[in-house]
Amino acid sequence: MDTRTPEQHRRIMRSVGSKHTGPEMAVRRLVHGLGYRYRLHLPDLVLARHKVAIFVHGCLWHGHRCSKGRLPKTRLDFWVCEACRLAAR
């Protein structure tokens, strides 16, 4: 049960970064280094000339255990359940 008001919840969710994440920046550097130009955030990267869309999802989303993937330190019980839920999809 959430103890926050809807306004508090909205404020918190607005502060969550969804652009310029570490994995997204790594893919952007790679794609740019290969000489491709792209548009941002429509989805993550769009190579319009080549009709290609690139979606960048982190380790939690895919549920694999690579050396760079880790669960957030806060609310660990929630994130363990969330990782299981995402893996079940």
Automatic annotation (TrEMBL):
The keyword DNA repair applies. GO terms for biological process: mismatch repair. Residues 1-20 are annotated as: Disordered. One of its GO terms (molecular function) is hydrolase activity. Keywords: DNA damage, DNA repair, Endonuclease, Hydrolase, Nuclease. Signal peptide: none annotated. This is DNA mismatch endonuclease Vsr.
